[in-house]
Amino acid sequence: MTPVNDEAPAATAAIRPDDRAASALRFTTELIAWVATPWALIGAGFSWVLAVASVLVLIGLPTFLSTPGDKNQVIVAVPGWATILLVLLQLVAAVLASWLAWPVWAAVAVSALAAVTVFTERKRWGWLRVRDASGR
Length: 136
Description:
The protein is mostly helical. It has helices at residues 8-14, 20-43, 48-64, 80-101, 104-120, 122-129; strands spanning 65-66, 76-77. α2 runs antiparallel to α3, α2 (20-43) runs antiparallel to α5 (104-120) and α4 runs antiparallel to α5 (104-120). The two termini are 33 Å apart.
């Protein structure tokens, strides 16, 4: 007879899921957002200052705000839902900016990449949803 371990689900939930493939897709989409967003803003006639500010927001917010346990170094701890929103910001910026700045074939490719990224992020987002700013 196998003993029942009531603590197993809680212990498993505390371990961050392996998301190497999702991380690569997420980072690729972030890079696209960092390039396409200022490109779209400048192309639409907005100022260089706004274009630079968009990059600072897209790079700066995820650098300073993170959920404990999701990154090795946390500067400002935020709950998991905030990290999920930051990823969604990057994905939306990449998709919208690519449609505004690039040819249709490129925008379709970016949109497909973002959709695949959302799909691969599901396990991490499930783990993040239950995390608070203290890492629990």
